[in-house]
TrEMBL record:
One of its GO terms (molecular function) is protein serine/threonine phosphatase activity. Residues 50-55 form the Serine/threonine specific protein phosphatases domain. It comes from Penicillium angulare. Pfam families: Metallophos (PF00149). Belongs to the PPP phosphatase family. It comes from the Eukaryota. InterPro entries: Calcineurin-like_PHP (IPR004843), Metallo-depent_PP-like (IPR029052), PPA2-like (IPR047129), Ser/Thr-sp_prot-phosphatase (IPR006186). It is an enzyme of class 3 (hydrolase). Keywords: Hydrolase, Manganese, Metal-binding. It catalyses: O-phospho-L-threonyl-[protein] + H2O = L-threonyl-[protein] + phosphate. This is Serine/threonine-protein phosphatase. The keyword Glycosyltransferase does not apply. Its EC number is 3.1.3.16.
């Protein structure tokens, strides 16, 4: 997150059904998160904020949000309030009982939606396990499960995506986590689409 102009571009157009929060290195993360939360309060049924891999205490200290809060407020209290808030963000969302939305990807520890519902998500994301996988995993051209080059989560092939969708009566996985230049990319045709809506990345 942190890209207020990009966010306002989408807000002016229409209030989105599913909104993903992405922490980043720009200096307007406080404003961007605050605006999203305010919109969620004002339009609770029209906006869903999902937790991503950067909505954690550890990552926000590495990528600038912690320092931004110190510069703007002189102490870490606001940062603590925000990171406590992140613990309440859902990790996944289901649209019309057909479209499965999340930040990262699938997990070898999760076969059904009930497995996800049973997770204790009200915590700092762990470094491994199903919650970590949902935030960090990526689709891959190779079949099966693979070791993620990110050092967290897994890579998963189209066969994994198809099996997950079939077992849960779903039609599509919508995820983020990777920049795609056209705004969306069919990572696995007709199964997994990667969506990236930030329009002010690297000054472009």
């Amino acid at each position: 997150m942190g890209k207020v102009p990009s966010l306002l571009t989408h807000v002016v157009s229409s209030l989105t059904k599913v909104t993903k929060v992405i922490m980043s290195t720009v200096d307007t993360t406080v404003e961007t998160v605050s605006l999203l939360v305010a919109l969620k309060i004002r339009f609770p049924k029209r906006i869903t904020i999902l937790r991503g891999n950067h909505e954690s205490r550890q990552i926000t200290q590495v990528y600038g949000f912690y320092d931004e809060c110190l510069r703007k407020y002189g102490n870490a209290n606001v940062w603590q309030y925000f990171t406590n808030l992140f613990d309440y963000f859902p990790i996944t969302a289901l649209v019309e009982n057909q479209i499965f939305c999340l930040h990262g990807g699938l997990s070898p520890s999760i076969d059904t939606l009930d497995h996800i519902r049973a997770l204790d998500r009200m915590q700092e994301p762990p470094h491994e396990g199903p919650m970590c996988d949902l935030l960090w995993s990526d689709p891959d051209e190779r079949s099966g499960w693979g070791i993620s080059p990110r050092g967290a989560g897994y890579t998963f092939g189209a066969d994994i995506s198809e099996s997950f969708l079939h077992n849960n009566g779903l039609s599509l996985v919508v995820r983020a986590h990777q920049m795609v230049m056209d705004g969306y990319f069919w990572s696995h045709p007709e199964c997994v689409v990667t969506v990236f809506s930030g329009v002010y990345i690297s000054d472009q």
